[in-house]
Structure formats: structure tokens, C-alpha cells
Amino acid sequence: MIELEIQSLFDLTQTIATDLFQGVIYPWEVLPNIGSFIKKLGETLPAQEYDRIGDNIWIAKSATVARSADIHGPCIIDKNAEIRHCAYLRGNIIVGEGAVVGNSTELKNVVLFNKVQVPHYNYVGDSVLGYKSHMGAGAITSNVKSDKTLVTVRFQNEKYPTGLKKMGAILGDMVEIGCGSVLNPGTVIGRETNIYPLSSVRGYIPEHSIYKKAGEIAKKQDEV
């Protein structure tokens, strides 16, 4: 299952949360620890670069935050990030350097690596989005199964338990999610993969692929 491991999905130099991923193998293992990690890391952030706003909220002085954004801690918004009109950040959130959280986008218990874009009417909960990953307008993560049982990750016709009731999606670096797509609980998408618009995705999707629909996944061709 090396494809599901942190080392296969992320460049850990592209997040302020590098230490969060130390000592674990699979990215969903960090989800219960995001809040406590933020509180610890926030206390070490230099006051000349970050403002502490309210209870356990740190915002880089170079970040742009709309007045209408609703932000709850624990939360770190890193340098040059942009939080747009009516964004709703519900706590346990790390917004990476240069990331964009858009109009009416809702986040809860997530890590956004540097330069992630969730710019238009997205919901992202209990998830990790790798460097430069992008969710098209209206794309969302579904983080709870309809029968409320613990989330599993499907990989090569097997189901692997996460031990979590809530888990959304794991996006590797530079993943592109098409508009209006739903990423079902336990979705893991490998690096540099594209998901067609209006897709319903579950399980593991290999890196460097194009997901057209369930059962139809094409390998990207190397450019000559």
C-alpha cells in the first residue's frame, strides 16, 4: 500500500505542518491531531510575521482576509494566503502559504498545503489537500458515510480501515478536481491526477491519471 503512504502523495517541504506528518504512515492518521498541533505550533510563530486573533487563531500579516470571513480556532493562515468573501473556517484548519479559500467555501479539520485552491463554493472537511491541488467550483468532500459506520479506504479491491467516523478526501500534490464533483468518504487521489467534472469518486485513484467515470481511468501520456 505504498501508494497510500504520505511519502507517495506529498512534498512535505510545501507546508508549515511538516511535523504533523512525522511518525505516521498514512495521511488520514493526522486528522485527529490537527487541532492540538495548531495550538502548539501557533505559540512558536514569530509575532513580527503573524497576528494572533482571538483564541488560537494566527494569521500571517501578509495574508488577505475578507471582513466577511467567519474564522474559528484553532486555525493558522499562512503567508500570502487569501480568504475571500463569506468563507467559513470552522476550526482545526491550516491554510498554506499562497493558498486561496474562496467565496462561501467552508472548511473543517483540514490541512491545505501551500498554493492549494478551493476558490468557489467548496466544502472540505476532515481532509488533506496537497501542494497546488485545486477543487473546481462546487466540488466537495463527503466526510461521513450514510450508515455512519467507520470509514474505509478501497485499494485494489480490498477495504482498509481508518478507524475514523469522519474522513473526507486525501488529494496528492497537483491534483485537479472538476467542477461539481463529490469525493466520497475515504477517497485518496494520487499526485497529478485529474478528475472529470460531475464525478462521484471513491477509493484510491492512481497518480498521473485521468478519472473519467467509475471503471474508466486513463493513464496520462508523457509529453514528448
3D architecture notes:
The structure is a single chain. With about 220 residues, the protein is mainly β. The protein has a single domain, classed as Hexapeptide repeat proteins (UDP N-Acetylglucosamine Acyltransferase, domain 1). It has 2 helices and 25 strands. It has helices at about 5-10, 35-40, and strands spanning about 50, 55-60, 65, 70, 75, 80-85, 90, 95, 100-105, 105-110, 115-120, 125-130, 135, 140, 150-155, 160-165, 170, 175, 180-185, 185-190, 195, 200, 205, 210-215, 215-220. Strands 1, 2, 4, 5, 7, 8, 10, 12, 17, 20 and 23 form an 11-stranded mixed sheet that branches. The radius of gyration is 17 Å and the shape is globular. The protein starts with 5 loop residues before the first helix and ends in a 5-residue tail after the last strand. The mean pLDDT is about 95.
